[in-house]
Amino acid sequence: MKYTNEIEINKPIDKVIELFDNADNLSKWMEGLQSFEHISGTPGQVGAKSKLKFKVRNREMELIETVTVRNLPKEFSGTYEAANGKGALNIVRNEFVKLSPTKTKYISESEFQFKGFMVVVAALMKGAFKKQSLKYITNFKNFAESV
Q1: Which of 1, 58, 72, 135 has the fewest CB atoms within 10 Å, counting from its CB?
Q2: How far is CA 131 from the centre of its chain?
Q3: pLDDT tens digits for range 69-113
Q4: CATH ID of 2-146, from 3.40.50.300, 3.30.530.20, 3.40.50.620, 3.30.360.10
Q5: Which of 80, 55, 86 is closest to 65 using CA atoms?
């Protein structure tokens, strides 16, 4: 399953990147994020791995993020996989485009590769995945515009 969400942020691209690239800001826009723990590699650089712990509707989930592309201010991409290796692999490409001196477009492309029972769940809930991704970039926009 693949889809793209995009949003315009009323902030200069340099400020958007500064806020996006700071791991301390993740909990300010990633709803449900309980912790972000660096595991290996140079933080934020290609090959770096981190563990993200979420609590969503009384359900806890751990994801392993692996940075695959770091070409800021243009692109930051990575993979997100359940820490237990079950369920799904989410490949996310974040792109930032300067629209004007005070406006930035944030484009988020997501691809999910499902395993086992999650294939059935994904078929039934495709809209929910896209909606959640849109919620994250909307939350980021609101956070960025508030500081």
Answers
A1: 58
A2: 13
A3: 999 999 999 999 987 777 778 999 999 999 999 999 999 999 988
A4: 3.30.530.20
A5: 80
- Predicted model pTM: 0.90
Q: Structural domain boundaries of the chain?
A: 2-146
Contacts of 108 (CB under 8 A, 6+ apart): 4, 5, 6, 92, 93, 94, 95, 133, 136, 137
Q: Token digits for 144?
A: 């960025």
DSSP string across 58-74:
TEEEEEEEEEEEEETTT
Strands (E) across 11-87 are located at 33-40, 49-56, 59-71, 75-82
